Amino acid sequence: MKDFLKYTMATVVGIILASIIFTVISIISFAGMMASEGATNSVPKNSVLRIKLQGEVVDRAGEGSPLDILSKGEQTSIGLDQALDAIKKAAKNDRVKGIYLEAGSLAAYPADLQELRRALTDFKESGKWIVAYGDQYTRGAYYLCSVADEIFLNPIGAIDWSGMSSQPMFYTGLLKKVGVKMQVFKVGTYKSAVEPFINTEMSEANREQTMSYLSSIWNGMLKDVAASRKLTVDALNAIADSTTIFCEADVMIENKLADKLAYPSEVKEALRERLELEEDDDLKFTNLADVAAGDDLGKKVDDEVAVYYAYGEINDSQAMGFSQEHQITTQTTIKDLQELRKDKDVKAVVIRVNSPGGSAFASEQIWHEVQLLRAEKPVVISMGGLAASGGYYISCGANEIWAEPMTLTGSIGIFGMIPDASELLTEKLGLSFDVVKTNAMSDFGAMGRPFNAAESAKLQSYINNGYDLFTGRVAGGRGLAQDSVKVIAEGRVWTGEQAQKIGLVDKLGNLDDAIEAAAKLAEVEDYTIGHYPAPEPWYMSLLDNTADDYMEGKMRAALGEYYSAFSLVRRVGKMDPVQARMPFDPNIK
User: Which residues of 79-108 are buried (b: 16+ CB within 10 A; e: fewer)?
Assistant: First the structure.
């Protein structure tokens, strides 16, 4: 009887809790629908689009929750897709008179910044203005703000214009302290992803390639800023050499990086003057989400060019990564591409790739599905901030490859990295191991010992075969001889600008350019643009939320810039042993 009452009460409590949860979700969903219905009218007349340049630039904006309006938290990310859409619509929206860029701490790949900056430049060509203000401008935020008609700086603020650097972290000493050694098998002189685990400093080859792509990116930034600020590249380099973020704000005015020193209230007064507001009129701001939610006035037709977003690490299983990191997983990606292949309305597909690579096996499976898709309709790749190693693997077989000049790509190489914890197990923990086996290789990879010579030879041969397969895929997709591909491969990272010169990329341009190219290949003039996969409803994050998600968020917040290093060390043992990926963290500063 006691058990019956206990289980009955538990059931009743569960039903009540479930009812409460679903009632709340229903109410919030209704509020969200009401908000979305009024989205087209949520942009006030005579308003300014305020873009806060803080947090991280991510590929796609989440749907968010209607409860976000109650949150006092700071913005943590900018969805690149939403930002580009909003800026494009703002140029055509009569209610939006200009853009106000509010600089902050912004983290983004250089190519993503380049695409945003191009959108802002296009916005200015519509005849509207851009004003920028910042207390502290990071290099990335300043690169975007330099396009503004007028740049304000706080009287005790600063602009970081000190050039670029890459500062990789090495874990070899840490692993040695705990008795772990990495057994590495690789192909490619420049394949530096393994270096943090076997070296204490950069190899000369890695130093060479890093300096090469950093210089390419920095030169691109210099040219863009010089054109906007009417300065010379030499002058901007001289400023980078002679000033630091700790110099007085007046120096930035003297060097013409900013136009005026002002406090926030004075900047808002300047905005009021541009809008020709009366003394009693309110200054009205709108945001990216509201402007992007406005009607797209283009006509609707059946023919569609699909944009498929493939971003994050490439893994064969979702379990290989972290819950808070988006991934390109084999089964999901293949299923999505199959659906696009079968959809008769979809005339061409643009795959937007932003990935450092990952599992070589998973990359091969996705490459194969792209070939099946290409056999039925044109496939164009649009590379984002990063499309390297496995990210290039899944791209190389497309009809055309487009990249931003500052995209990081290439890194065509394969490696295997398997930890040897024998010292930790036997010497530090005092464990012993023995074996009985029927064949020479029966205890392949046994605990308590490193690989022997025969096992190491087998693994290296497997890696070599994987490299031959990878370079063969590139050769076939790019119409090059495999020997020629191997010359420019070797695991070397290139910028999009460099990659175009050596045949790894067809053309330089943004996502819009890639969409136009795909439509041309499909021979369609009137088309709609579809975005895939459909974003997951915001409430799914509530249903899927776990203690691991909570702890991961806390660790991310606590460790800051060291989080990526921590997460890498924590999961390296769970990764596929054979990887096609670039250095784990380019660590560009």
Answer: bbbbbbbbbbbbbebebbbbbbbbbbebbb
